[in-house]
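Please review this one:
***
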Amino acid sequence: MNELEMLQQYMLPGRKQRHEDILIQRTSSIRVVIENLHKEHNVDAVLRTCEAFGIQHVHVLPQAGDQGILRTITRGCDRWLTIHRHLTLDECFRDLKGLGFRILAGAFGPGTRPVDAIDWNWKVALVFSNERDGACPEVLENADGLFVVPLHGFSRSLNVSVAAGITIHYVRSFMEKAGTIEGLSDPEKDVLRNDWSRKSVKNSKAILDELRRRG
């Protein structure tokens, strides 16, 4: 009996099925980069948005204070995400491009295009930057393109978590309609099954140690 089978003995059937239902909806086609957000609660809100829309991988660049993640905002959703922390933007972008992602940043600048005027039929990493100062010069110089959410009122900007929600929903819907969205690989699903099972079963480490002791 492997670790997953051991832990699933302590899970209700509905919980196991819930894991499977969510794994099927996770996508490998979209990743999110959080770049130096000024307000910690916005980081947490973006993480919650990513989880809700089936984004598994989130890349986090240094933030002022780096105080961590507020469970009161995310309601623990960060436990279900794969969060990559990077020391520099160059490292982050290099890793993403090495995996075949095009990088588009939410920002105003030369060539900025509305989110609904872009062909999203490729793997994309969406960058959401500091809500006070906007994207840093390195993001503007090294991103493959820039996008904005079209606005039609007196307000000329959105909270970063709202902008992230609108953008992720649009990009995912575009890919689903085009039939180009991809799910997670089977090996990654296996890794997440094990990880999520450990997090779903109270005292999972002690249980596994005892079961192994018994043979």
